[in-house]
Amino acid sequence: MTASPHPAEYFLSAADPDFAALIERTGRCRLEPDQTGEPYEALIRAVLYQQLHGRAAAAILGRLKALSDDRCPSPGELLSYSFETLRACGLSARKIVTVQGLAQARLDGIVPSRAGAEAMDDEDLIAHLTSLRGIGRWTVEMLLIFTLGKPDIMPVDDFGIGEGWRKLKRQEVRLRPRQLAQVTACFSPWRSVAAWYLWRASEEGKGPSGKNPVTG
């Protein structure tokens, strides 16, 4: 028996005929947030994926996990690893500073637990975490979408989102983030699902695409 469409699919289809066609081509939304993941681990993963191809980032993450019995290192473990050890995993000097800063921030309670993060307003959590070195808005938005499952996030600084909108609307150039935020505001309260479909649109004609720009 086929599951009923997500309410967001009806909403987006009614809001924009191009989205209706995209949803028809793509099929059901397969956005599947991690139901148990912790913000600390999600942020470490997102930092590793910043400005890297998914496969390269996955390889670095795999080497980092290999140091800790195939799991994300705990804050204490990550702080105990030398610069040379982390460089050997493939992390840049900047990312080493960032991930070890995240580890210390988790120990200090600045990076909240999942329960603490879920209790915060989306924008408050973004402001709180972007105060940390090396953590930008995009990184926290990936946490909000793929770990906390927040339904109304549109990461307008993401290349794939901008490219997906350009293709969807058959435009010559990508919109600037502020413009993209304005034209996608009408998709609230389902902007996370809209973002998932825009990632799919950005990959049309390129073969199979991944589910998550942070995990490949």
Automatic annotation (TrEMBL):
<feature type="domain" description="HhH-GPD">
    <location>
        <begin position="48"/>
        <end position="203"/>
    </location>
</feature>
<comment type="similarity">
    <text>Belongs to the alkylbase DNA glycosidase AlkA family.</text>
</comment>
<dbReference type="InterPro" id="IPR003265">
    <property type="entry name" value="HhH-GPD_domain"/>
</dbReference>
<keyword id="KW-0227">DNA damage</keyword>
<dbReference type="InterPro" id="IPR011257">
    <property type="entry name" value="DNA_glycosylase"/>
</dbReference>
<dbReference type="Pfam" id="PF00730">
    <property type="entry name" value="HhH-GPD"/>
</dbReference>
<protein>
    <recommendedName>
        <fullName>DNA-3-methyladenine glycosylase II</fullName>
        <ecNumber>3.2.2.21</ecNumber>
    </recommendedName>
</protein>
<keyword id="KW-0234">DNA repair</keyword>
<dbReference type="InterPro" id="IPR051912">
    <property type="entry name" value="Alkylbase_DNA_Glycosylase/TA"/>
</dbReference>
<dbReference type="InterPro" id="IPR000035">
    <property type="entry name" value="Alkylbase_DNA_glycsylse_CS"/>
</dbReference>
